[in-house]
Specification:
alpha/beta; seven-stranded parallel sheet; two-stranded parallel ribbon; 8 helices; 9 strands; SDR_fam
């Protein structure tokens, strides 16, 4: 068996002009900001959209590929069309809300397909090439909610925690081959996602009042959030670091709140998150 290819081709700034980056969900929000930032840094950038032909304003320098993360064959076709990839940014996904007991299981399964299984499968398809070439960067776009769970967002929190878990556990598997898996966890980001979030609340739900309170605070926090370009800058740090960290967090006063997360008991953190969203 051949020896691991540790560090043969570090994916640093010096050789990025020959690198190819694949960014899922690159038609808007964080994905578009990441794709634009990578183009500006000299990468050959492939972006994905469910239907590239419908894009009103494609980003200059980005070649778009169709990708529906709910379609297994489509994921494989996207990976084949992309060819060798040096950087993969798994950004595409869905935001979902609803009281835990009222979430339709079909909706939960769809969310995990889009937010977790699709990203996992695409990563599986590009990792062999990265490993064989001795270099690669995979960035999972997670969420600070994976560390700071919020009521009425259980399915979304769980999906982002699962994505982070895959990256954390597999990180040591691929590190000897010069490949790094990293999770970037944004806090409140002003991307307009509030208008695209899916909601599941039963008619006459006993949770309706508390749910509306949470949602009002959530939407307000996101409207005041940092721009997606700041998340893109953090993604670039992970992509171009010689030894990327397992986790990067950005937005929502990340350094301070993660310090509190380490210092405070879980129950205290839970109360802190709830109060920030108007819940008792």
């Amino acid at each position: 068996m051949s020896a691991p290819a540790t560090g043969r081709h570090p994916a640093g700034a010096g050789d990025r002009g020959g690198r190819t980056a694949l960014v899922t969900g690159a038609s808007s929000g964080i994905g578009a900001a990441v794709a634009a930032a990578l183009v500006a840094r000299g990468y050959r950038v492939l972006g994905t959209s469910r239907d590239p032909s419908t894009l009103a304003a494609p980003l200059p320098g980005v070649r778009y590929l169709p990708l529906d993360l709910a379609d297994e064959a489509g994921i494989e076709a996207c990976a084949a069309a992309a060819g060798p990839v040096d950087v993969l940014v798994n950004n595409a996904g869905e935001s979902q809300n609803g009281p835990f007991e009222e979430l339709p299981m079909a909706a939960v399964r769809r969310l995990f397909q889009l937010n977790v299984f699709g990203a996992v499968r695409l990563t599986q398809l590009v990792l062999p090439g990265m490993r064989e070439r001795g270099h690669g960067r995979v960035v999972m776009i997670g969420s600070m909610l994976a560390s700071f769970p919020l009521a009425y967002r259980s399915s979304y929190v769980a999906s982002k925690a699962a994505l982070k878990g895959f990256a954390d556990a597999a990180r040591r598997e691929v590190a000897p081959y010069g490949v790094a898996l990293t999770t970037v966890e944004p806090g409140s980001i002003a991307t307009g996602i509030s208008a695209r979030r899916t909601h599941y609340v039963a008619d006459g739900s006993p949770f309706a009042d508390a749910y509306r309170t949470m949602l009002t605070a959530l939407d307000a926090n996101e409207a005041r959030g940092i721009p997606p370009e700041k998340v893109a800058a953090t993604v670039l740090k992970a992509v171009e670091a010689a030894r990327p960290r397992p986790h990067y967090a950005v937005g929502s006063n990340a350094p301070a709140v993660f310090l509190l997360r380490r210092l405070l008991p879980d129950a205290a953190v839970e109360r802190m998150v709830a109060r920030r969203h108007g819940l008792r």
